[in-house]
Structures are given as C-alpha cells and as structure tokens.
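EI: anyone free to look at a 191-residue chain?
SC: sure, send it
EI:
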Amino acid sequence: ARTFELASGKPIASLFKRGLAILLDGCIVLIIAAVPLGLIWLASGEPFDLESGVFAIPTEDATTGELARKVLEAGVLVACWVLYRGLTTSRSGAWNGQTVGKRVCELRITQPDGQPITTRIAWKRTALETLFLGSTGVIGAVIDLMTGQPPTGTFIATALGGVFFLVAIGPVLRGQQRQSLYDRLAGTVVI
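SC: here you go
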C-alpha cells in the first residue's frame, strides 16, 4: 500500500483507520442520542421496537404524527453528531483535532501544513461533513412529511446520500493528501 506524507513529514491517515474512527464515533453518537430518542419514543406513546425505531422506513399508511416523529428523530441524530464532532475536534491541547474514535485510531485533523486546527476550522469541517454525509436522512424525513407519501423520501434520501457520499469521499481515493471534499473546503487533512 502506498503511503503519503505532508510536507512536514507527518503521514496521511489510511482509509482503514479513517473508516474505523468514523465507525467508533458513530457508536458513541448513538449512545449519546439514546436519551433524547428514548424520550421521543416515550412521549409518542410507542414502545421501541425494530419496526417503529429510528431506522424504520415509514409505511404508506403512516400518519403525519409518525412522520413528524421521524423528522424529529433524524434531527436529534444530526444534532448529536454535529455537537459531538464539533466539540471534540475543536478542543485545544493534546486532543486538538481528535474525536474519541480518532484518538483510539491515533489520527488527528490538522491544517495541511501540519499545524493544529483552530476552533473555527473544526466547526467549519463539522458543518461541511454533516452537510455532505448526515443531512440526507433529515431530507428524506421532511420529503415524507411534506408529500405524505412515505417511503418516497426515504428512497430519495438514500439516493441523495449515495451521491453525496461519492462526491464527498471520492477525492479521498485520489490525491496525495487523501482529502475528502469537506476536508478541502475546510482546509484540513487527517494524519
């Protein structure tokens, strides 16, 4: 496997380690989101099960209330992701540019010259990452709510998610700095 380095000599993160870090962070976000999602499920009067849970696809006979709940659930997940990623990567000191997943995988988000990222850069990257990778679930839930035709929005969101993913992540496969589109726009690299 080819390895790439920054001009400072620091190695660029491998795709495997980046993927593993995102998987670990996703698990942490689900644990964090469990409390507000549990409250939503309790307030809606519906016990949690695999058919009515956050990852279920609404059926065509879903009510507006059920669809609104799906929008709220998707919004909670996106908000938890944004807060977790933004707060963890924007810290100063030894943990700068690291989520828990990145810390475990010994990765760090830096500026292309190897310098630590600023708070502004960390939040900018988080917002761009969320826009490209996390917003499609909310878009699908809103389409379902507006059209009243579930699972139309779910299918559209899945298609959009695939396109956004390829556009955002495709550049990681090419180029010496392995920057995703949101890394390029935020001025960051993962080492």
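EI: The helical segments are 15-43, 64-89, 100-104, 119-133, 136-147, 152-173, 181-186.
SC: 👍
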